[in-house]
Amino acid sequence: MKVLKFGGTSVGNPERMKSLLSLIQLQKAEKTIVVLSAVAGTTNHLVAISDAYHKGEKEEALTLIANLYDSYVVFIEELFSTPEGLQNGADLINHHFDLLKGFAQELFTTVEERIILAQGELLSTTLFQFYLKEIGVQSVLLPALSFMRVDDEHEPIMDRIHHDLSNLLDNHPFAEIFITQGFICRNAFGEIDNLRRGGSDYTASLIGGALRAEEVQIWTDIDGFHNNDPRYVNNTSPIENLSFEEAAELAYFGAKILHPQSVFPAQRYKVPVRLLDTLLPEAKGTLISDSDENKGKIIAIAAKDGIIAIRIHSTRMLLAYGFLRRVFEVFERYKTPIDMITTSEVAVSVTIDNSTHLESIVADLADFGDVEVDENQSIVCVVGDFGPATHGHATRVVEAVKHIPVRMISYGGSEHNISLLVHTENKIEVLRSLQNRLF
Ligand code: ADP
Ligand code: ASP
Ligand code: MG
């Protein structure tokens, strides 16, 4: 069993969608589960529709819906060639767009918002299945909403996913191609929910882990995991091998090619993950596995925006114990994870990326000392071998950014990374400078 995930651009137009079949057949796998994202741009468009409803701007929402509908009319005209295929396609898009329009009559809450966001993957997967049917290729559509479950902490329930998915597969012992939606799931209340933006990678890894698949393949629009963010840096290059830890660290710290949590299920069940390019299928891509190929090397750089730094300064911290516990308890109370941390005798700095409870957190921390908040920060994370057997790597990193103000440096937490906190306006310069000095 292989799990193949195709991202938004890989199903971004009818030609691309049609070409997926040859990539699936190339695998020569006994069984393949194909995880699809929404057609590129659709989820952003659905977010805009949902925002308009949320603000009570019904006319705006309906205009946005009409625009998206028009693009799907063109899509199905190019995808299907038989009257039956065209009719099926038209019925399908009418069904989904009628549902979107229907929210104009209802009270709009986050429940409706998540139903709207789910329509993209529901559309792309059914369109692909209709296309396969039109050309005479058998496939089975597995509804993600029947097996992808998260609990009240929004954590996937692996046992349940394994159980429900296995049962669905057992109903089709002779089928070879299964198609399912990335991104969408049901939450603890049984409502339609999602795995957060970019979540189709996570879906693929969860399925791969749950079924102990031979391999998970993430097909996207670039020839593998690059050693820096190609959106900001020109001379980046693909990395052939990454360990699960390295990939997880890079994904968590902002490498958009992978959803931040998507490495963990594959890592837990030791399922290798391959990153491949739909437009260049012969390229090697990147293999994420138990590899230790990168020993002794600096491997890659990633950056995560939207970070807030909080410094708590207190002379009471001097020689005190239990101080950090009380500080951390504040973040725990507001379910706000901390990313980076640095301490001195009389101050501690931490970063968070979720500002929902910032005001309350700052108010509670004020009980311990003076609190300073810096917004618009970015974490730049350099991943590589920073273990005891190597030396000089940290110096090279710091040397590369000597012309840029750095707010925090975190080193030694793991042997895999060194992280710098900089103002977001300096991020691109930091990425470029590190690229030029480290590789
Ligand atoms: P998909 O729609 O297939 O999920 P994404 O847009 O989510 O694709 O991810 C692929 C994009 O990630 C690339 O086009 C690239 O711009 C961006 N990216 C950011 N960092 C990296 C990196 N380190 N290596 C490769 N791509 C990266
Ligand atoms: N369609 C979703 C998004 O755009 C999920 C994904 O593409 O991975 O975020
Ligand atoms: Mg993605």
Structure, described:
The structure is a single chain. A hairpin with a 3-residue loop joins strand 12 (341-343) and strand 13. It contains 13 helices and 16 strands. It has helices at 14-26, 42-54, 58-79, 83-102, 110-134, 158-170, 200-210, 244-252, 263-268, 323-333, 358-365, 393-400, 427-438, and strands at residues 2-6, 32-36, 140-142, 177-181, 184-186, 192-194, 215-220, 241-243, 273-277, 286-289, 298-313, 341-343, 347-352, 370-384, 408-411, 417-423. The model has no long low-confidence stretch (mean pLDDT 96). It is globular. With 439 residues, it is an alpha/beta fold. The protein folds into two domains: 2-289, Acetylglutamate kinase-like (Carbamate kinase, 3-Layer(aba) Sandwich); 298-438, VC0802-like, CATH 3.30.2130. Helix 1 packs across helix 3 (58-79) and helix 2 (42-54) packs antiparallel against helix 3. The strands form three sheets. Strands 3-4-2-1-7-9-10-8 form an eight-stranded mixed beta sheet, with helices on both faces. The chain has a six-stranded antiparallel beta sheet with strand order 12-13-11-14-16-15, sandwiched between helices. Bound molecules: adenosine-5'-diphosphate, aspartic acid and magnesium ion.
